[in-house]
Structures are given as structure tokens and as C-alpha cells.
């Protein structure tokens, strides 16, 4: 396995990785990219969660291995000796959104992406050594949605074909380049999104990722009275289930052998939140 690869992550349960409170009406928002407002998982959050996962599961990894992959703090003892501190060999990048699930009256829900996300994924795919596809045309589309021939999302009216996502309706079109782009993805993901994948305009994708997350209202119960504490009402934002992220991992081939197919990332682990399926990509070529 090569030293550069894209790793894909799918949310199995709602995901909350805490972000900035700036300009958020939610008490506990998720992490988002500053310029795009797309959901993300920061590299430091992902690295910390994976380190805990590998340490907890062991699976043949020694403390020395873990220190080599993730680094070690100065003064922390490893194998009985005081460590001088060092950086880890594995390089993590922020996990970026690839597909975002959006409700659809036809086909239950859709795996939504947009030309900007597709172009960025293609750029990252090539950056790690992926084979270049000849001149993929991933330009912005207007007032239409691109689907595949086997789409479950399409309905017809007056000899025209449409899809509906939340309250937005699109006339559908088909593009060969969209189908070619899908072949960049691991076969597992191609099979998973089959019939549900759709490309919408960039601005509409931004709207969905900003307004179609899950908002949970929570309370805190007093241990003494068993009732709700005063002022303990708060809201928490989650990336919904069925979202796909991807991250580039450098020098991580050996580490990946010690990561189970399911990992937990972010807060509320004891509530079953943040369970992610790890889909290991194909080797770089």
C-alpha cells in the first residue's frame, strides 16, 4: 500500500464535532469551513479520536507504534523511559464533505453533492497520485440537477423529469462527466450511493448543508432533585446519518491496518453518537 491515500468516512449515527460559536444560533454548533460553511472534521479532532481508537483496541499495536504514528508528549513515559517529545509520522488532513443526505419524496433521500465539491475531490484525488481522467467538465450548473440513469429520485410530469429535495424542485439532466467522476470513488461507495446520488448547483448545496443538519434540544437533570436544572436548556447541532466525508492520509498505510471498520469521533459517545464507517480507498497510482 502506498504512503498517500484518500480515506472515506460515512456517518452511521449523527455526528457532533464541536465548532465555533461565532454567528451561530445553536448553542453547540458543528465544525464548519470558514469560507464555504461546509461541515468538516478538523484534522486534530480526527487524529485524537483515531489515536484513542487504536490505543483502546490495541490489535497488535504497541505503545511505541502509537507514539510513532501519532507522536508523544514531552515527559510522557513510553516503555518505562521518559520521552523527549516528538511529532507523529502520520499526516492527517481535515475531513471534507463529499455527499450530504437530503430528504426526497421520491426515493426517501438523496446523496447530494455539487460541482465545487466534485472539483475539489478530483483535485485531491490527483494530488495523492490518482489516475487523471481526461478533461472532466465539472462546471457549475444552473436551476437543474444532474442524476444518473438509474436514479430512484426522478418523477415525471408533462413529459418532463424532475427531482424534489426538501422544498426545492429541479428539472433533471444527465452528464457523462458526472458518471465518469463517480468512478473515482471506491467501489463500495459507488454501490452505496447508486440510484440516490445527485449533483445540484453550488449555492443550493450550501443551503442544504447549512439548513438541513439536525438540531437537538437537550436538558440537564439535577442529580439531587431529579428535575431539570434552571438554565440548563441547550441546543446541539449534528451532521445527519448517511453523510460522507473524505480525508487524505499520508504515511498511514501501517496505521490503517490497526483501525477497525467502525470508529467513534466527536462528542456524546455514551449516547451512541459519532459512529463512522471507515472506507479505505484504493491505492494511489
From TrEMBL:
Keywords noted in UniProt: Antiviral defense
GO BP terms in the entry: defense response to virus
Entry superkingdom: Bacteria
InterPro entries assigned: CRISPR-assoc_RAMP_Cmr4, RAMP_III_fam
Residue ranges annotated for the CRISPR type III-associated protein domain, each copy included: 9-274
Signal peptide boundaries: none
NCBIfam families xrefs: cas_RAMP_Cmr4
Protein name: Type III-B CRISPR module RAMP protein Cmr4
Organism in which the protein naturally occurs: Savagea serpentis
Gene: cmr4
